[in-house]
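Entry 14. Structure prediction run on the chain below.
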Amino acid sequence: MEEYKYLAIVDWSKDYIRSGQLKPNDRFLSEKELCSIHGVSRQTVRQALKCLENENVIYRVRGSGTFVKSGTAKPAVQNRCVGVISTYFSDYIFPSIVTGIESVLNENGIAMQLAITHNQVSEEAQALRTMIANGVQGLIVEPSKSALPNPNMELYQEIKKNNIPLVYFNAKYPWADFPYAAMNDEAAGQTVTDHLFECGHRRISGIFALDDIQGHKRYCGYMKSCLAHGVRTAENSVLWFATAEKSAIFQYAETKLLELIRGSTAIVCYNDKLAVNLLRFCREHDIAVPEDLSVVGIDDSKYSKICDVPLTTVRHPHQLLGEMAAKMLIEQMNAPAEHQNDCIFVPELVIRDSVKIIRPAERAAEDAEPDGVSA
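Output returned:
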């Protein structure tokens, strides 16, 4: 694919300069010459030249041409730059994660370029191409819609082929051959569900994101807990949603949600943000939390502490996860290796006020319900 050929031109140009063919301040090859040598379009050559200029390998003089920069076949350490691509940034846990990344990069004299994809694969592709064209020396990426087929697979394969270090955070694509830093999402789902069982609940429902890996893994943890406690019908008590519609489900799925609540004593939410919206929904429908319905979240975000009923949840490592992702990338940049281990954080249960403890008499009544524990 021609859109990736500029990376080969960048590598060739660096080798050509290092070989002694050109000295500092010598005129570099023209666009026409590079097109002829590599058999590519002028647009591809211009992309390569922009990358070389960003890496301080060449410089341009208006009206005179392009020249080799003094001693610049390799970018200076202090000019290193890393691209950080996040699905969101303005709220929730994302500012803390990015702050963690930035603090480690700053300590190591590395600049940061930040791009937000709004969880759109098209915006992810654009961000990757722009950052590579700008000459970043590494990438830290949160995948967009990580549970769905992704058209950017070939782009990531090219990044791997061209030895550009990359670390994912929060999740990674199932097919991706890069390391990642994340919370153990399966353990998170299992931990909050286990807690509900320990508090006497049996009719436990779940609401999970269908388009990202975190949602699938948290669902898996929920199911493991339910099966371990003898509940074999839990998969019938799950409502799935697309992440872009996490607020809209309280309108378009209102009937389904009310049915889910009527058949449950507790609900496991995909994350705290969804749980807070569920608390609001319950208040609007005169459903008391935790008296009528217990609610648990995941991530221990700022919302979990300041909502109407402080949420029981599990703690996401937030800033620490960002710091670790940056450290993993720097390790790759300084000493490239064929394999780097993932960093998976163990979630910690945080107990607050959103879960009711069901007493033995209440539990006996619940176990008599058809949707309760299977024999």
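The chain has three domains: 2-68, 77-183+318-345, 185-316+350-367.
Filed with the rest of this week's runs.
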